[in-house]
Each structure stands twice: as structure tokens, then as C-alpha cells.
């Protein structure tokens, strides 16, 4: 059942230990939330998992295979896709164009196929447009499909970021602060969509988020970090009642 596994991850920057012997698993069809105060090591751990940093020690396995030395592009090709805290949409392109650009393995990228305008290219483009339409309706962005991405609100950009990631048809989505800068109404919509993707499409999520209330609402498992280490792990109820996490947030002895 394990889809993602981290074992003994350690990362230092100069003399600063950012991540220290971090280990945990993410099972298939699970939402795992990662919380912790500023400086806890959440963002560095996220980047180690996504391939944007290479660990000094430890390994990362995805779907049973070690991917520690693979970059983010190779991990994405294997089904591990991340979003960014600051949405990375192309602001000068329309919403639909942003979605279509995120589709993977376009046969038209091969020169001969593109020149011949083969049926495979046409079929792919038709399928990609159908999938983009389905996702935009699912995310309630369909009415904005012809709007320039730069004109969207912060929350709408986060939904578009999620849609672009889903165009890659990932097995695992790594979400970096998906609720940051999102108003309460759009936060509720985003949370609902994440839970529906898990329940109805068997997707798996790892979510790094400062909004503890949101994490507790959607997560099956919560990982609490402090000083680069995993301090607490369990159900939302178990982690919320862990006095060590309360002390970490409030600044007491842990």
C-alpha cells in the first residue's frame, strides 16, 4: 500500500541542519498533512521529496523504486507531481491554454509527427481538450476558460495550479501551501476537491500547509515537525492532543 517512502533524510546548508533523520510513509489513496512552526523543516523535506534538493543522507522511494537521485522532471514522469506555494501559471495565456500546455507526452513534440499532422497528434489534442474541460468544470473554472490567467484571483490561481497538475495524471500530488492567500470560500472549494479526488479517483496527496485547521479537516495522517525532525505522527486527533506539538508552536521546552 505504500506509495512514497522517506528513510533517514538529512539535509544541511552550511552549518545549519534543516532536516535531520526524517522518515515516514505515504500510503496509496491517503492524504498526509505536514505541519510545524516556521523553521521546522517542512519546506526542505518537501523539496527533498519532489527532487528539488538532493539529501546529504537517506533515500526516497516512490512506488517501490528508489528515486533519490532523480530530478523533478523524472519524478513527474513516474507520477509524482508537485504544485508551488506561488502559483506558476503563465499569466499571458488563457486558462484553457494553461491547462493544455500542462498535458504530458504530446506526440507533436516529435518533429516528424508534427510535420505530418498525424492522426495520433489530432487524437491526443482532442483527448487533452476533453480532459481539460472535465477538470475545469470539476474545479468550477469552466466559465473562466477564456480569461487570461493573470486576471484570476489568488484562490482561482491555486485552483488552476491544481488543474494543471492534474493534467499530468499523477499518482501522487505534492501540494505546497495550497491554501496560502486563498479566501475562506475558495479554501472550502479547494479542500472539497482534494477529498473528492482521493475518494472518487483514488489519488494520493502529501500537503505542506500552515493552515492547521485545514490540514486537520482533510488529512488521514498528520506529520508534525520541529527543528528538522518528525516530532509527532498519527491521526489529526492524536497530533492535536500531542503536548510536544503544542509546546513547539508556543515556544516551550519540547
TrEMBL record:
In Swiss-Prot or TrEMBL terms, this protein is called Probable branched-chain amino acid transport ATP-binding protein LivG
- Tell me one GO biological process term: amino acid transport
Instruction: Determine the domain of life of the protein's source.
Output: Archaea
Q: Which CDD domains match?
A: ABC_Mj1267_LivG_branched
Any keyword Nucleotide-binding? yes
Identify the residues that the record assigns to the ABC transporter domain, covering every copy: 4-252
What's this protein's family per the entry?
Belongs to the ABC transporter superfamily.
Alphabetically list the UniProt keywords. Amino-acid transport, ATP-binding, Nucleotide-binding, Transport
Q: Name one GO molecular function term.
A: ATP binding
| Organism, as annotated | Haloplanus litoreus
Q: What does this protein do?
A: Probable component of a branched-chain amino-acid transport system.
Q: Which Pfam families match?
A: ABC_tran, BCA_ABC_TP_C
Amino acid at each position: 500500500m505504500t506509495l512514497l517512502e522517506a528513510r533517514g533524510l538529512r539535509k544541511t546548508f552550511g552549518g545549519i541542519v534543516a532536516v535531520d533523520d526524517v522518515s515516514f510513509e505515504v500510503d496509496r489513496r491517503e492524504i498526509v498533512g505536514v505541519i510545524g512552526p516556521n523553521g521546522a523543516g517542512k519546506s526542505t523535506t518537501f523539496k527533498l521529496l519532489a527532487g528539488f534538493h538532493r539529501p546529504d543522507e537517506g533515500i526516497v522511494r516512490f512506488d517501490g523504486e528508489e528515486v533519490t537521485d532523480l530530478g523533478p522532471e523524472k519524478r513527474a514522469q513516474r507520477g509524482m507531481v508537485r504544485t508551488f506555494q506561488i502559483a506558476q501559471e503563465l499569466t499571458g495565456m488563457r486558462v484553457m491554454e494553461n491547462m493544455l500546455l500542462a498535458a504530458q507526452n504530446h506526440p507533436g513534440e516529435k518533429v516528424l509527427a508534427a510535420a505530418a499532422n498525424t492522426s495520433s497528434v489530432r487524437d491526443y489534442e482532442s483527448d487533452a481538450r476533453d480532459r481539460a474541460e472535465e477538470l475545469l468544470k470539476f474545479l468550477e473554472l469552466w466559465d473562466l476558460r477564456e480569461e487570461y490567467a493573470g486576471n484570476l484571483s489568488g484562490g482561482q490561481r491555486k485552483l488552476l495550479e491544481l488543474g494543471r497538475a492534474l493534467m499530468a495524471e499523477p499518482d501522487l500530488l505534492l501540494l505546497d501551501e495550497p491554501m496560502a492567500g486563498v479566501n475562506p470560500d475558495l479554501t472550502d472549494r479547494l479542500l472539497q476537491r482534494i477529498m473528492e479526488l482521493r475518494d472518487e479517483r483514488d489519488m494520493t496527496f502529501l500537503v505542506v500547509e500552515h493552515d492547521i485547521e485545514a490540514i486537520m479537516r482533510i488529512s488521514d495522517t498528520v506529520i508534525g515537525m520541529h527543528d528538522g525532525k518528525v516530532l509527532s505522527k498519527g491521526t489529526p486527533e492524536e497530533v492535536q492532543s500531542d503536548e510536544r506539538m503544542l509546546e513547539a508552536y508556543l515556544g516551550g521546552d519540547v
